Amino acid sequence: MSAASDLKSEAKTKPSSQLGNPDTKKEPARDMIAAADIDDGEQDDFHPGPRLWAIIIGLGVTGLLTALENTVVTVAMPYIISDLAMGDDYVWVTNAFFVCSAAVQPLVGQLANVFGRRWIMLASVAVFALGSGICGGAATGAMMIAGRAVQGLGSGGIGLLNEIIVSDLVPLRYRGNYIGVILSIYGVGTTLGPFIGGSIVATTTWRWIFYLNLPIAGASLALLFVFLRVNYRRDMTFAEKVRRIDLLGNGVLVASTVSILYALAYAGASYSWQDWHVLVPLLVGFLGIFLFAYTQAGGGWLTAAEPVMPPRLFKGRTAIIVSINTFINSALTFWAVFFLPVFFQAVLLFGPQHAGVALLPMSLVAIPGAALAAAAISRWGRYKPVHVVGFAIFMLGLGLFTLQDPVSSTAQWASYQCICALGGGVLLNSQLPAFQSTVPERDQAAASAAWSFIRSVGWVWGVAIPASIFNSRIGELVGSGLISDPVAAKMLATGGAYGAASAAQVEQFPDMVQAEMRWVYTLALRRVFQISIAFAGVGFLLSLFEDEIVLRKRLDTEFGLKHENDRYNRAKGIDAGTDSDPVGDGKDAAAGDVVQGV
């Protein structure tokens, strides 16, 4: 512990501005020791106050916007697809949202460091509201996809900044608790979302799913404008700030992600996996990912002054394992969320409102599971057992979904959901503290952005992969002659099965054809969930090889929300403004102030 003690002493005497400067050169090994061992046995000096709780609740209400949108659309999707005649382009209604949400997060992380948290959060909420308006007024499938892309840009910023601000305020050991509070409010949205979506579709037009976001966004903007005040140092010009942003890295990352997703969206439905329409964008996308990695690792003149995703974030076995498992957990979560409604509406022939209610066990159990995991990590400071148990339960729940069929009882499908949701909930907010534990405090914002990007990419693939499996399996089953009616067979073929996954679409045919269609849907969903078991198994095995890293109890960061007094800034000699000052005056810089007594 001598090395850790030396580092601890050094950290106490070193100016905060130097600790938070990304250009400060340190030995990578020393950074890892500081991140892992510096707080072993330290005293707990974290004392949350009412202002902290007010901020946390405010962030949760803002996250309610994206929570509602993530779930209400799943129930209404068949009606949107049918009304706008989208065909197999339906995957882009969700994929455009999630790919934009993922791609924008690394950039938002850099912008928040450069221009401060407040204005970037306000802009994110405004962009989300704009996208909601576009979706609500969509007259074509292309307009709907464009609106969902704009929504995704706003959603990505909101989700990431929630996590960054919590990291600014709360020591690593206890972050799970406060993220859990935000997730509890988020859980209200995910719980009510399917019911709200089903009720809207059953009683009025699906367009109100998007219009309802506008007053919520307006209230959120007002609250954030008044209460979210953030300090920042005024030591850089606007031009210097722009040079800190890795525009090339962000551009390559966005283009590569979109290219790969395009291939996944159409593989197995419109084109075979061997077709050039799939292979070319897939190859281009992966080449772009390698180029992005090259620019981040030191690609000569292509290297940015501050890479958007520096390689030091992924040094060590635990960082790599947690990154992979974050992707797997995120993908499997949306794997279930987007295909359970197909089971309820196309197999059990539930109406949209009934299907929304049927999804309640998933939401009602996931949030308590997340709270349980957060409490365990805060109490014992260990995340590895939580991850192992979480993946084991998640794998069991996904496996039980393969047993569902047209005669499954309510007790069966409800209990299967509860088991799956418990496993997913335990993993929900326990991955981020583990990832942040591998890096020092000065890299917390970058680590949050990288982790959020990985999570969002997992969401994208969690829709694209099962959709491709589902469409391919439907094509095989219809091609084998399992559906005798040519009209029904044509409706399900060529990627139309998801759009036709509603009781109204199935019940228009004679009883015998209905039975055939329901069985085809059952077999296709069975294949979808069989493959999900393998993904969960990989996550379980990888979690066994994580290292246990001590979670810090002390908050030592120059980033934070404005306090009622600025003793910290005066002591450090920092000329700090607030995010309420004009952004483009040529003087203001990144957010900078540690929270004391919040």
Explain what the structure shows.
Helices cover 70% and strands 1% of the residues. The protein contains 24 helices and two strands. A two-stranded antiparallel sheet has the order 1-2. Helix 6 packs antiparallel against helix 10, helix 8 packs antiparallel against helix 16 and helix 14 packs parallel to helix 20 (444-479). The two termini are 32 Å apart. One of its GO terms (molecular function) is transmembrane transporter activity. Its main location: membrane.
Write the layout of secondary structure elements.
Elements: H1 2-13, H2 16-19, H3 28-37, H4 50-84, H5 91-115, H6 117-136, H7 141-169, H8 175-203, H9 208-211, H10 213-227, E1 231-233, H11 238-244, H12 247-266, H13 276-298, H14 317-347, H15 352-358, H16 360-380, H17 384-401, H18 410-428, H19 431-436, H20 444-479, H21 486-492, H22 503-506, H23 511-543, H24 567-572, E2 576-578
Antiparallel strand pairs: 1-2
Helix pairs in contact: 1-3, 4-7, 4-8, 4-10, 5-6, 5-7, 5-12, 5-20, 6-7, 6-10, 7-8, 7-20, 8-15, 8-16, 12-13, 12-20, 14-20, 14-23, 16-18, 17-18, 17-23, 20-23
